[in-house]
Amino acid sequence: xxxxxxxxxxxxxxxxxxxxxxxxVLNGERIxxxxxxxxxxxxxxxxxxxxxxxxxxxxxxxxTFFNRNFHIEPTNLCVYDCKFCSxxxxxxxxxxxxAWAFSMEDMMNIVRKYDGQPVTExxxxxxxxxxxxxxxxLEFFGKIKQHRPSxxxxxxxxxxxxxxxxxxxxxxxxxxxxxxxAGCDSMPGGGAEIFHPEIREQIAADKCTGEQWLRIHExxxxxxxxxxxxxLYGHIERFEHRIDHMDELRQLQDKTGGFQTFIPLKFxxxxxxxxxxxxxxxxxxxxxxxxxxxxxxxxDHIKTYWPMIGRTTAQLSLAFGVDDLDGTIDDTxxxxxxxxxxxxxxxxxxxxxxxxIRKVGRQPIERDTLYHVVQDFTDVEFAEDKEFRGYVxxxxxxx
Length: 399
Known about the structure:
- The protein has two domains: 5-60, no CATH class; 64-382, Aldolase class I (TIM Barrel).
- It is of the alpha/beta class.
- It has helices at residues 16-27, 33-42, 45-60, 104-113, 134-147, 158-168, 172-182, 197-203, 210-222, 239-256, 282-295, 306-309, 311-317, 335-338, 350-358, and strands at residues 63-67, 69-72, 77-78, 89-90, 121-124, 152-155, 186-187, 226-233, 259-266, 301-302, 324-327, 363-367, 373-376, 380-385, 390-395.
- Helices cover 40% and strands 17% of the residues.
- The chain is built from 15 helices and 15 strands.
């Protein structure tokens, strides 16, 4: 567990403002908007890391979660023109060699590819196109559930839902109810970017607003369903915009309790309209994770996408408030590599992911999408299976 934070209260090197935040963390009290901005402006890495790790271990102990999942990205063609996006291609770029648009059968073939494998989740998110409309997704979700009822469908962001509901001329309330009934089990956190209109209008002016994003999640929560939340950081936003974003999420979580995890997403500048903006450093990435953990006191989990920041920084993040490394993923996901992520082949075996967690002294826990424990890998050993050219899990025998 973390060392006793109370020693910081006696440090001659910390200001009264720093110590006031330490005291709040020790007492389990909420920090204010201004204190959140203060941490960004005056919180050194070691300081915010100590606070974040204390909160992380108070909430989740030494556990670090992951799941076995795969991604389906229906298309990278899109009607929207987000300035930061390296992944999407405008409809007029349909002929580009790296553009794709899968049919429903194409995507069902991806699902079938995992038959017999111990994956628990399919994560579906992609570009926005007219043909991927409400009837299309209702049928698609239904087919997945018919084929593999136990597979958790985590699908589409408010950006996609806003578009398809408007096209179908249904309200958010009507649309989300239909999506739930079709077999969607939870909603990912994408499309949040930065809520504040000053920034959102510059980087993603033509898609749903921050208010609309929050409202769709709120309706989903009111249906008894769970979702995640993200924030795109490290571009033209200022520190107060990050805290404003997290404050909106914290307020909605107070109201609904429906968010499971928060995922800060690092802006990557490869092959997009914001390529002139330098990327944040690893130190700033870790500070951002830590401050997110401190500010979002009503979120149970903070997640990092290891393909986006790289395995080494992901391991380090486990000491800065992060308790979830997402999943084993698979090579069907192109969002990360096209954005210039650290991992150009974002695939890990279960053994590799478990080893990543163990090497930094954490306890690897396989979870399902809703954070039910599937298996505790603390005392699981792996042996190479020559016949299948993979790895099988062997229980530890205590002598």
